[in-house]
């Protein structure tokens, strides 16, 4: 295991230094690498692997880091693998971001040799359709929660720092507790709340929804304009801002 650790640490140091000969050392002729950039089918063979490094070294020399932060190795008789996390990026990018690395090794002619590398970064972008579907589900759920007078359920979809521009009252309501008071007052009267024909656009961790709210109370229906902004958090999509108004 010490031999493998030294091999990987030597490789990491060589990448950081732009030392191509040492980067290529200890790699099999039939190396297969799945890298961050294309091609999607991977880089196959030592000659193709070698061609991937000059551009990276040029970027590396501009001040980027390439540094191990963790390394775990599992070793068998003639096959082993290692998983690692590395700081890989400019100083302002490496506080939280980590490159993920998996290395497969075989023992050839009595020494450990790298036969496979897989490099990746977590993909933080959310598919737009996923966000749009999730926000639409939240809006639809508000109908059921309003009918059931489920105040806690309505609050569950709001961010703690939500800012709401309501039809009446002060200029703005800031924070979940302030908005809770508005919603509690609204639930005192039985109502049917719906948001038909909403337009929703989601990109990465933000989504915007706009449309006409319908509220029916004791047989009388009112309509108001609504724009809402949602942010994706560790707890899912949460409302961070809404703007409600009647035309004057």
From TrEMBL:
<dbReference type="InterPro" id="IPR037401">
    <property type="entry name" value="SnoaL-like"/>
</dbReference>
<dbReference type="Pfam" id="PF13474">
    <property type="entry name" value="SnoaL_3"/>
</dbReference>
<feature type="domain" description="SnoaL-like">
    <location>
        <begin position="135"/>
        <end position="247"/>
    </location>
</feature>
<dbReference type="InterPro" id="IPR032710">
    <property type="entry name" value="NTF2-like_dom_sf"/>
</dbReference>
<protein>
    <recommendedName>
        <fullName>SnoaL-like domain-containing protein</fullName>
    </recommendedName>
</protein>
<feature type="domain" description="SnoaL-like">
    <location>
        <begin position="4"/>
        <end position="122"/>
    </location>
</feature>
């Amino acid at each position: 295991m010490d031999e493998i650790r030294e091999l990987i640490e030597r490789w990491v140091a060589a990448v950081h230094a732009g030392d191509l000969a040492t980067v290529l050392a200890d790699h099999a002729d039939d190396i297969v690498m799945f890298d961050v950039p294309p091609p999607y089918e991977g880089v196959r063979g030592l000659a193709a692997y070698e061609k991937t490094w000059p551009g990276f070294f040029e970027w590396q020399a501009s001040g980027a880091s390439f540094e191990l932060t963790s390394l775990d190795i599992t070793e068998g008789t003639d096959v082993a693998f290692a998983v690692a996390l590395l700081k890989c990026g400019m100083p302002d990018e490496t506080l939280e971001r980590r490159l993920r690395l998996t290395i497969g090794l075989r023992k050839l002619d009595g020494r450990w040799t790298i036969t496979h590398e897989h490099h990746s970064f977590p993909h933080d972008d959310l598919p737009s359709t996923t966000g749009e579907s999730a926000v639409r589900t939240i809006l639809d759920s508000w109908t059921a929660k309003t009918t059931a007078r489920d105040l806690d359920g309505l609050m569950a979809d709001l961010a703690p720092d939500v800012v709401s521009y309501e039809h009446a009252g002060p200029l703005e309501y800031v924070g979940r507790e302030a908005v809770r008071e508005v919603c509690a007052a609204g639930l005192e009267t039985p109502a049917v709340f719906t948001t038909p024909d909403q337009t929703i656009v989601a990109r990465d961790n933000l989504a915007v929804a706009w449309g006409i709210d319908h509220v029916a109370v004791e047989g009388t229906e009112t309509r108001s304009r609504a724009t809402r902004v949602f942010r994706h958090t560790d707890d899912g999509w949460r409302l961070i801002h809404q703007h409600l108004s009647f035309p004057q």
